[in-house]
C-alpha cells in the first residue's frame, strides 16, 4: 500500500467493540473475505469451532488457509480481536493488545508475518502475505496506535511524521558526512532520480515507503544477488534516512525510517556484530554495518550540534568543499568525535587524535575554527577545546 494512501490516525477507538467493528469493515473489503452472515450455519459453526472463536463475538470476517478442504484453519476478525489458526500456529490478539504491539511487519521467513514477538505463518492463506500485511497495518492505523514518540519507525508509519519539525541541516554537508563514513560514494549522489546517471539503479520508492514528493539526495543500492533491483539499501532524502537491508531480520525493523530531527535526539547508534541498532531496535544487518553506524553517528552529532549555544559558527554559510583546503589527517581514529566549523561553515567530524594532529600541523585557525562534542555546554574555540 502506498504511504500516501494509508488512513490518518484519529486516535484510539472505543475499546467496547468499536475497534472490532472497524477491523471487520476493513477486512470485509478484500475479495477473499468471507462474512459470517454469508455462510450457512454449518460452515459458520465449523469456522467458530476450529478457530476457537469466543461465543460472545457476534460476527466474524474469515480468511481461509485450508489447503485440503475448507474452514479448518485461517484468520478471523471479530469484535474482540484477531484469531489466527494455521496448521503450525494458533494465536489470539485482542484489539487492545494488537494496538499496543509494534506495527505488523514481514517475518524473516518468506511466508510469515510478525506481530511483536510472534511469527504468524501465512501458508495457504488467501489473501497473500503482502495483502494481509497491508490489511493488518490499515486496521492498526484506523483503530489507533500512533508512531513511537522517538527513534526509528517502520516505513509504513512514515506518513505519521509529516508534520514533525525539520532541523536546518545542510544537505551538502549531510552528503559529505555520508561520504566520509565510507558508505556512499559520489556516484551515488542523485542516482535515484529519473534524470540522473543512466547507468544507475532506479530507486523503488514504494519498496522504501518514500513519498513521491520527497526529494532524494543519494541512494546506495544493496541487492540480494548480483542483479540489482533498487528495492534494498540505504537512501538519504531531504527528510531523513531510509534503511532496507539485504538480510531479513528476526527482530527489529526490516524497513526503517529515521528523520534527521529524531536522529539528533537519538541514543548513540550501536554497532553489534554485523548489525546496527537505533534506540535498541535492530534496523540493519550486513556487511556495511560499520559504515552505516558511523554515518548515523556523525549525522546525529551534527544535527544535535545545531541546537547548542554558538551554533551560528556552523550555520552562517552553506557547506562548500572547495572553500578550504582539506585537512590531511593520518592520525589514528580514536577518542571523542567532534564536529568542526570554520568561519561560519561546517567542515567535518573528527576524532580528538585527528584534531590534535591537525593542530600540530598548523591547520587549525585559532580565530575562525569552532568545535562541539556531545556533552559540551556550547561550541568552543580551539583553545577552549584543548586542541591548541
Q: Order of strands across the biggest sheet?
A: 1-2-3-4-5
Shape: elongated
The main β sheet shows up as: 5 strands, antiparallel
| C-alpha termini separation | 56 Å
Q: Helicity, in percent?
A: 10-25%
- Rg computed from alpha carbons, rounded to a whole number of angstroms: 25 Å
Query: Helix segment count?
Result: 11
Kindly give the count of domains.
Answer: 3
Which blocks of ≥5 consecutive residues have pLDDT under 50?
1-14, 191-199
Structural class label: alpha+beta
Task: Provide the residue-averaged pLDDT.
Answer: 84
Number of strands: 20
Give the DSSP E fraction (strand runs of 2 or more residues): 15-25%
Give a description of the structure.
This protein is α+β, with helices and mostly antiparallel strands and 388 residues long. The protein folds into three domains: 3-146, no CATH class; 160-305, no CATH class; 312-385, no CATH class. The chain is 25% helix and 22% strand. It contains eleven helices and 20 strands. It has helices at residues 18-28, 41-51, 95-100, 129-143, 171-180, 205-208, 260-264, 289-305, 312-315, 352-360, 382-385; strands at residues 34-35, 60-64, 74-78, 81-85, 90-94, 105-106, 112-115, 118-121, 153-154, 216-221, 233-237, 240-244, 256-259, 270-272, 275-278, 281-285, 337-342, 345-351, 369-372, 380-381. Strands 1-2-3-4-5 form a five-stranded antiparallel β-sheet. A hairpin with a 7-residue loop joins strand 19 and strand 20 (380-381). The longest helix is centred in the C-terminal third of the chain and has 17 residues, at 289-305. The radius of gyration is 25 Å and the shape is elongated. The protein starts with 17 loop residues before the first helix and ends with a helix. Residues 1-14 and 191-199 have low confidence and may be disordered.
Amino acid at each position: 500500500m502506498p504511504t500516501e494512501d494509508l488512513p490518518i490516525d484519529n486516535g484510539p477507538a472505543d475499546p467496547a467493540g468499536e475497534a472490532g467493528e472497524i477491523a471487520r469493515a476493513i477486512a470485509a473489503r478484500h475479495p477473499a473475505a468471507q462474512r459470517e452472515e454469508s455462510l450457512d450455519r454449518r460452515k459458520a459453526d465449523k469456522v467458530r469451532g476450529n478457530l476457537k472463536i469466543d461465543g460472545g463475538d457476534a460476527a466474524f470476517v474469515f480468511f481461509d488457509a485450508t489447503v485440503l478442504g475448507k474452514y479448518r484453519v485461517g484468520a478471523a476478525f471479530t469484535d474482540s480481536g484477531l484469531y489466527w489458526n494455521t496448521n503450525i500456529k494458533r494465536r489470539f490478539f485482542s484489539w487492545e493488545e494488537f494496538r499496543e504491539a509494534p506495527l505488523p511487519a514481514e517475518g524473516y521467513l518468506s511466508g510469515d508475518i510478525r506481530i511483536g514477538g510472534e511469527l504468524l505463518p501465512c501458508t495457504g492463506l488467501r489473501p497473500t502475505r503482502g495483502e494481509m500485511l497491508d490489511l493488518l497495518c490499515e486496521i492498526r492505523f484506523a483503530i489507533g496506535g500512533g508512531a513511537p514518540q522517538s527513534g526509528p519507525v517502520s516505513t509504513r508509519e512514515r506518513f505519521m511524521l509529516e508534520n514533525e519539525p525539520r532541523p536546518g541541516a545542510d544537505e551538502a554537508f549531510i552528503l559529505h558526512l555520508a561520504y566520509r563514513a565510507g558508505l556512499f560514494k559520489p556516484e551515488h549522489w542523485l542516482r535515484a532520480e529519473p534524470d540522473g546517471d543512466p547507468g544507475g539503479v532506479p530507486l523503488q520508492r514504494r519498496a522504501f515507503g518514500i513519498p513521491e514528493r520527497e526529494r532524494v539526495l543519494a541512494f546506495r543500492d544493496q541487492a540480494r544477488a548480483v542483479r540489482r533491483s533498487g528495492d534494498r539499501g540505504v537512501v538519504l532524502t531531504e527528510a531523513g534516512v531510509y534503511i532496507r537491508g539485504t538480510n531479513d531480520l528476526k527482530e527489529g525493523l526490516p524497513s526503517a525510517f529515521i528523520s534527521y530531527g529524531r536522529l539528533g535526539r537519538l541514543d548513540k547508534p550501536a554497532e553489534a556484530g554485523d548489525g546496527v541498532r537505533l534506540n535498541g531496535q535492530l534496523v540493519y544487518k550486513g556487511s556495511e554495518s560499520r559504515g552505516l553506524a558511523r554515518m548515523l553517528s556523525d549525522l546525529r552529532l551534527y544535527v544535535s550540534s545545531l541546537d547548542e549555544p554558538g551554533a551560528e559558527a556552523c550555520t552562517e554559510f552553506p557547506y562548500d568543499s572547495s572553500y578550504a583546503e582539506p585537512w590531511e589527517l593520518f592520525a589514528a581514529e580514536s577518542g571523542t568525535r567532534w564536529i568542526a566549523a570554520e568561519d561560519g561553515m561546517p567542515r567535518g567530524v573528527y576524532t580528538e587524535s585527528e584534531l590534535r594532529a591537525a593542530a600540530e600541523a598548523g591547520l587549525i585557525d585559532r580565530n575562525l575554527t569552532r568545535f562541539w562534542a556531545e556533552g559540551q555546554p556550547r561550541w568552543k574555540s580551539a583553545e577552549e577545546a584543548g586542541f591548541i
